[in-house]
Amino acid sequence: MKAIVFFKAVQNLQKTIFTTEDASRLMNKPMNYTKVYLHRLKSRGYLTAIEKNKYTLSQDPFEVGSNLVFPAYISFLSAHYLHGLTTQIPVLVQVVCSKQKKTISFQGMDIKFIKFQKNKLFGYSKQKFREKYIFLASKEKAIIDSLYLPEQCPISETFEALQDKEIEIQKLIEFALQMDSIVTLKRLGYLLEKQGIDIYPTIKSELNARYDLLNPLLKRSKNNSAQWKLNINDDFG
Known about the structure:
By secondary structure, the protein is of the alpha+beta class. It has two domains: 3-56, Winged helix-like DNA-binding domain superfamily/Winged helix DNA-binding domain (Arc Repressor Mutant, subunit A); 61-231, no CATH class. The chain has ten helices and twelve strands. The strands form four sheets. The chain has a four-stranded mixed beta sheet with strand order 4-5-7-6. Strands 1-3-2 form a three-stranded antiparallel beta sheet. The chain has a three-stranded mixed beta sheet with strand order 10-12-11. The longest helix is centred in the N-terminal third of the chain and has 13 residues, at 31-43. The N and C termini lie far apart (61 Å). The model has no long low-confidence stretch (mean pLDDT 95).
């Protein structure tokens, strides 16, 4: 099969990532022949091998990252960037998924996979991106994910993202409750309070008396929030 015909057939699959088995069916050829054929196309720079028996014609790390495993979606600082909530250009693509997966490098950019329990994979959708499609967290879910795991996104960036006027406060609360994480609720309440938004009456029954860290990456400070039962160990304005 001529390369141009093969590429057209792959595009018709409407799959960012295709497998050796996919290619074998498209060409109606045995696996051994298909592997050699794909290796030749790869050697000529016509396609990229992502993992064993997985290939792509895409050049975009965001597209590849969110389509490599299912279910999965782009979140944290990467999502803030795509939503225009930060001016900081991400140095990697952060992908939430339900399986343990090693970081891979693609087109000079790392794609990092962050494992969540399956019941925490929600609040995302398929979005058109640069004439292709990616799976992307909503603004609200990216914020909640960032408060759930501040190790993946600086608290200061999350605070900045919260200032977007399109953010739906009720959706933030619903997503935080759905994450089933008390510390996430505390962090959300504290950051919103700093912006003059009080959600304490709505969620106070969900909180506990333990003083959690606002930023788990920093040492405990002497500054506490008695209302939110948070140790305020990060200063971001």
